[in-house]
Write a structure and sequence with these properties.
This protein folds into 2 domains: about 100 residues, Leucine-rich repeat, LRR (right-handed beta-alpha superhelix) (Alpha-Beta Horseshoe), CATH 3.80.10; about 110 residues, Ribonuclease Inhibitor (Leucine-rich repeat, LRR (right-handed beta-alpha superhelix), Alpha-Beta Horseshoe). By secondary structure, it is mainly beta. α1 links the parallel β10 and β11. The radius of gyration is 20 Å and the shape is elongated. The chain has an 11-stranded parallel β-sheet with strand order 1-2-3-4-5-6-7-8-9-10-11, with no helix packed on it. The protein contains 1 helix and 11 strands, in the order ββββββββββαβ.
Length: about 240
């Protein structure tokens, strides 16, 4: 039986006096007022799910790298300006990593080591660029980067061969890399509220795409092939 401890929405400002059993596999501390967590948390070697979202955390201990069984980690809605490099050592992180609504100014390059991760959310931060090499994220199925300050995307984006959803709404993109046409599994592409002026012709190769959202790109010149693309069953929102 999974050992769980659910303490969400308790108004906690600290965990002093709270027992964290060594057998814990699921720990939910969502929606409290924590500014830090005790070091003993990082010694919970059986932990598989950790939810620290919606607190007041400004940093995460490098000791998080010891949680090798962790498959789901939620650090969203805090005050993090960086994450420790040791996050890239979480080889068991396969399901979900959520870093949205923090104060990140750069996409943590260490995340590119998470080759088994399926979902990555880094929305609503202050990220202006991505690492040149994203190829390590080989299992990623959903990538959410909306609400940042991205001005361009690296060509290595096209190496994310498992990607099914790419959410880029509300950035500052003026163009897309030609390599985006290599995302053969892509089903949804959200490009709302950018500054796009053109689309790469390589998009026509995305045979599995069923939703393309182009709204609120006021200077976008629609390519001639877009109507044909729509006729093949892709819902295009203009």
């Amino acid at each position: 039986m999974t050992t769980r401890l659910e303490l969400s929405g308790q108004g906690l400002t600290s965990l002093s006096g709270t027992t964290l059993p060594a057998t814990l596999e699921y720990l939910d501390l969502y929606d409290n007022r924590l500014t830090s967590v005790p070091d003993e948390l990082w010694s919970l070697s059986r932990l598989r799910v950790l939810n620290l979202a919606t607190n007041r955390l400004t940093s995460i201990s490098p000791s998080i790298g010891a949680l090798r069984q962790l498959h789901t980690l939620d650090l969203g809605h805090n005050e993090l300006s960086a994450v420790p490099d040791e996050l890239g050592e979480l080889s068991g992180l396969t399901e979900y990593l959520y870093l949205s609504d923090n104060r990140l100014t750069a996409f943590p390059a260490v995340l590119c080591s998470l080759g088994r991760l399926k979902y990555l959310g880094c929305t609503d931060n202050r990220i202006s660029t991505l690492p040149e090499d994203l190829s390590g994220l080989t299992s990623l199925r959903e990538l959410r980067l909306y609400g940042n300050g991205l001005t361009e995307l690296p060509e290595s984006l096209g190496t994310l061969s498992s990607l099914r959803e790419l959410h880029l709404r509300k950035n500052r993109l003026t163009s897309l890399p030609e390599s985006i046409g290599e995302l053969s599994e892509l089903r949804q592409l959200d490009l709302r509220e950018n500054r796009l002026t053109a689309l790469p012709d390589s998009l026509v190769r995305l045979s599995k795409l069923d939703k393309l959202d182009l709204r609120w790109n006021k200077d976008l010149r629609e390519p001639l092939w877009l109507a044909d693309f729509e006729a093949l069953g892709c819902m295009v929102l203009r």
